[in-house]
Specification:
- The chain has 382 residues and is an all-alpha fold.
- Helix content is 76%, strand content 1%.
- It contains 13 helices and two strands.
- It has helices at residues 12-18, 35-42, 51-58, 60-74, 80-96, 103-122, 127-182, 187-222, 241-244, 248-258, 260-271, 275-333, 338-376; strands spanning 45-46, 231-232.
Length: 382
């Protein structure tokens, strides 16, 4: 599947109604990127490093947000004063409808006027606030795509491990049956072995379905149709030196500067005129700053914790590799049975999968920290 030629964002309304998101019109005009960049985004390959660009160009939510910003600019509702005037005009209309002829209607119009005036006083939104909100939504969509792609490969590794264990579990089941027939085993051993085999088969079915669901979610988010089959490339290698460069105290300044929620609230404070609104926003901003700093520290601690798990998984696999090498030699010379060999192989495969999933967990923790620094640290309420 090739993504179609992009059109200007101002033509998106017709595009979105005439075709589904999967037809993948881009949100930017041709001149916004080089020919090489467009070629990379239009191919039938899904790469982790391209997720942000794919979301920006082909995600239908982002495109609708771009269209909404365009409409707001066309409506000239750009500044907070103009937005406030909208409510003041409404208040004026309510007061004009007060005639003195109908006490109930007059009372309702008086309440409407009062509410509209209050809304005008509280009004803090302008085109910059709307744009920052949409930028935040786009960044969250990128983070969701990143997590989904990581989860996709985590499930792939676990699925392979489960499939690898089937030969061992089948052998255990068959051996239990042979022993039962020979009078040296029990029916309970047979049933237990059968249950383990069936549980693993069920787990394989569930993981297969989960992988397909995740693939479809990614396809739809990034501009493909749900039943397309893009080539999903492996995740980039984890750079361990990145961890050494992390410092929440130093990175806090960038996290505060980049945070979407904090930027929105600061802009709202600039727009606010009513005293109570300004005081509320000042308290919200102070709370945001504290929460952002706290969240960044928590993200860093998560990186350290997952790094410790990953390091231990490396040690465990190295030890299990020695056991596997020993078993290989024993099996080759006939001093170990097939069941013993498969048991050891299953254990080794499980340790190998544990290392791969620990690496993915660390990769995700690093990405979450970087996303926090780049504007997505939790700012709390407000």
């Amino acid at each position: 599947m090739k993504k179609w030629k992009q059109i200007n964002v101002f033509c998106l309304a017709a595009a979105l109604t005439a075709a589904s998101p999967a037809t993948a019109y881009a949100g930017s005009p041709e001149f916004a990127r080089t020919a090489e960049e467009w070629a990379g985004l239009k191919d039938n390959v899904m790469e982790y490093g391209e997720l942000a660009d794919l979301i920006h160009e082909y995600n239908v939510t982002v495109q609708k947000n771009q269209l909404d910003i365009s409409d707001k600019k066309k409506d000239s509702r750009i500044t907070s004063d103009e937005n406030a005037q909208y409510y003041r005009d409404a208040a004026s209309d309510y007061r004009s409808a007060i005639t003195g002829d109908d006490p109930i209607s007059d009372a309702q119009n008086a309440v409407g006027a009062s509410n509209a005036d209050a809304q005008a006083d509280r009004n803090v939104e302008d085109i910059q606030v709307y744009q920052k909100a949409y930028d935040q939504e786009e960044a969250n969509l990128v983070a969701k795509a990143q997590s989904s792609m990581i989860f996709y490969f985590e499930q792939q590794y676990k699925l392979k491990s489960a499939r690898d264990s089937l030969e061992y579990l089948l052998t255990v089941y068959e051996t239990a049956q042979v022993k039962l027939n020979a009078g040296t085993g029990t029916q309970m051993e047979v049933l237990s072995a059968k249950k383990s085999l069936q549980d693993t088969e069920t787990s394989i079915e569930k993981m297969t379905a989960s992988i397909e669901e995740t693939r479809q979610v990614l396809c739809i988010m990034l501009g493909w149709k749900y039943d397309d089959n893009p080539d999903i490339k492996e995740l980039p290698s984890m750079e361990r030196e990145t961890i050494g460069a992390m410092n929440p105290e130093v990175d806090k300044e960038r996290a505060l500067e980049n945070n979407y929620s904090l930027k929105m609230n600061k802009r709202k404070l600039e727009n606010a005129s009513a005293g109570i609104t300004r005081e509320t926003l000042k308290r919200t901003i102070a709370n945001n700053e504290q929460n952002i700093s706290t969240d960044l520290v928590k993200s860093y601690q998560s990186v350290l914790l997952t790094k410790s798990t990953f390091d231990q998984a490396e040690v465990d696999l190295e030890m299990e590799k020695k056991n596997m090498d020993t078993m290989e030699r024993k099996y080759q010379i006939g001093s170990a049975s097939k069941l013993e060999y498969l048991r050891q192989k299953s254990t080794y495969n499980a340790k190998e999968t544990a290392l791969k999933t620990a690496e993915l967990a660390l990769f995700k923790a690093i990405q979450n920290y970087e996303n926090g620094v780049n504007g997505l640290a939790s700012a709390g309420g407000g």
